[in-house]
Structures are given as structure tokens and as C-alpha cells.
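[Automated response] Your request has been received and processed.

Submitted sequence:
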Amino acid sequence: MRRAALSQLLKGGPLAESLHVVLVLVVAALVWDSLPRALTIGWVGAVTAAAACAPGGGWASADGRHPPKESAAGVRLTVTGVGLTWGFGAAAAIPALGLDEAALILVVLAGIVAGATGTLVGDRRSFRYLLVTVLAPFPFGILLQGHSRPHLLATLLITLFAWEWTACTSGRTARLRRGARRVLLESSTQELGAPARLPSTP
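Generated structure:
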């Protein structure tokens, strides 16, 4: 079960890392004329550096070179780093942006969280680290931008989104674990109940 969960955590590989770089470049193009260039370039650099240290880059491997516990810890650390660069970068950028640009950035962050459910479902702690670091700073940026009804509703929607994904992922992880235990139990039962084979005599 541990090996299966770890393999699920690491299967994204270079594709997931490169996707973060592509997304932050898209966001940079969106805010290029609205933010100080130093802030935009710093945000791009931070996300790129964090993505370069992601699980596929050597923190962990599923081939047995590292124990599962150590590998999972590496995944959690790098996931947290990626989440922090996205979350705090967005929170720093949003007060200088319009609400429409902030909404588009939220779409990107929501897509990152939604996409992570496929690879991080094997370890709820990794998913929660990503969810909190990506989304928790965002409402502060929204409220620094203003306190109108759209701003308050956006904050409420972010909170509901985070709660829904937490509940959804917890239930999915529990179902996967129950299914794995059932398969292991059935396999053990079949092995114990199988009739012993006597060696054939010449």
C-alpha cells in the first residue's frame, strides 16, 4: 500500500513541473502591464525554482532508492514550497490588480489544486499542504484590494472551494485505502485457503 501511494505521488514527474512553469509564464503575461516588473519577474523565478525541486527532480523516487517515509517527506516539502510561491506571489500581486485579473489568477490556482488531486490523493497530508499554501494567502490579497460585496463574495467562494476539496479528497483517499485493504485481505485468504501441492514423485 505504501509503495502504491508513493508511486501515485511521484507519477507526475517532469510534466507536472513544466506545467507550473508554463502557468506562471501565462500569469506573468497577464499582469505584465499591471505589476512592477521586479515583482512579476521575482514571482516567475520563485515558482520556477520551486518546481525544479519538485519530486521528479530527485527528492524522492519510487524505485526503492529511498525509504517510503523519507520519500513522502520530500514530496511534502517540495509541494509546500511550490504552494507557497504560488500563494504568497498571488497575495502580493492582487492588491495592485483589478478584480477581473485577480479572478483569472484564482482560476489558475484552482486548476493547480484540482489537478493535484490525481497525484496527491495517495497522501492527504501532501494535498492539504498544497491546498493551504496555495489558497490561504489569496483572501488576504483580495481584502487588501477592497471590501466591497464582490471582494467578500470572492473570499467566501475561496473558503467554500477549499472546504469542498478537502472533504472530497479525504473521502477519495479513504475509499482507496479500503479497496487496497480488501484486495490484500482477499489475496491473503486465497493463499491460506489454497490446497498444498505435494511434490511429484518420479
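Summary generated for your ticket: The longest helix spans residues 149-193. The radius of gyration is 22 Å.
If you did not submit this request, please reply to this message.
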